[in-house]
Amino acid sequence: MSHDISWAELARQARQAAEQAYAPYSKFPVGVAVLASSGRIYTGCNVENASYGGTTCAERNAIAAAVVAGERQFLALMVYTPQTQLTPPCGICRQVIAEFYAPDSPVRSCNHLEQQQEWRLDELLPSAFTPTYLANSSKI
Ligand SMILES: O=c1ccn([C@H]2C[C@H](O)[C@@H](CO)O2)c(=O)[nH]1
Ligand SMILES: [Zn+2]
User: What residues does the CMP/dCMP-type deaminase domain cover (predicted)?
Assistant: First the structure.
């Protein structure tokens, strides 16, 4: 539940992760901290590429780091954005978050002004395509 989540700690770790961002092209360093159901926190930053499409976002890198550690469920995700305007995850990341996240779980953004904004995942990605849709499919 939302009130059990240490958002201040997630914000601190997301900001720290943003310091490692590799963003020479966009100059838009992002950090993410994600809280797994184990209680552990994992972080990621954006890693850009000279072939711009090879870029991966901080959100997906944080989730990948958690999955490597054995996590399969997340309770909260904080984005540290280098913007005065608080920014939500991009569309691709919303889909990746939905794979491991309850629809009513919170996603937050924070910035250097210590502002925060919260959305529910199902507000960011209504009618997500989730793993349950793959069950019992029929042949063409
Ligand atoms: O939530 C976001 C939004 C953008 N980016 C990255 C992608 C790209 O490297 C740069 C500009 O879009 O920021 C993220 O990592 N997370
Ligand atoms: Zn993204």
Answer: 5-132
Helix, strand, or coil (residue 134): helix
Is 19 considered catalytic here? Answer: no
Pairing state of beta strands 31-36 and 41-45? antiparallel
* Mean pLDDT split into 10-residue runs, the chain, 140 residues: 81 98 98 98 99 98 98 98 98 98 98 98 97 92
Minimal CA–CA distance to 67: which of 42, 93, 104? Answer: 42
ipTM rounded to 2 decimals: 0.99
Q: Is residue 50 part of a domain?
A: yes
Domain span at 109? 2-134
Closest atom of ligand 1 to CA, residue 48: 9
Residue 46 tokens read as 């954006």
* 84 in any annotated domain: yes
Q: Can you give the C-alpha Rg of the chain in angstroms?
A: 15
Number of structural domains found in the chain: 1
Cβ distance 74 to 102 under 8 Å?
no
CA distances from 133 to 47, 124, 126 (A): 31, 19, 15
CB atoms within 10 A of CB 18: 25
In a domain, 140, yes or no: no
